[in-house]
Amino acid sequence: MNKKISSDKNKSSLQIFGRVSGLGITFALITCIGGFIGYKADIIFNVKPIFTCLGTACGFILALISIYLIIKKDIL
User: Fold this and answer.
1) Is the per-residue pLDDT at 8 higher than 80?
2) Is the pLDDT of residue 60 over 90?
3) CB under 8 Å to 54, separation ≥6 — which residues?
4) What is the arithmetic mean of pLDDT over 4-28?
5) What is the H or E stretch that residue 10 is in?
6) Predicted confidence (pLDDT) at residue 59 exceeds the cutoff of 60
7) 59 to each of 11, 17, 72, 73, how far by Cα in Å?
8) If residue 12 lies in a helix (H) or strand (E), which one and from where to where?
9) Which of 1, 19, 42, 50 is most solvent-facing, going by the fewest CB within 10 Å?
10) pLDDT of residue 19
């Protein structure tokens, strides 16, 4: 366990910035993809705000799960 802590101290600030910005981009991209799929479903089924809201909410939940799994994999 001490080896993991000492290896974390050796990470440069650029590596940490890269990982954090990657998490932000992942979160935004997954949420936007969900919203876009919902928007296209609204056009197909002609019910304007319903599927856009559902797609954005599902994208948000999937983004949270994805971020959690990335962080869990990185820490353990």
Assistant:
1) no
2) yes
3) 38
4) 80
5) none
6) yes
7) 31, 24, 20, 21
8) none
9) 1
10) 86
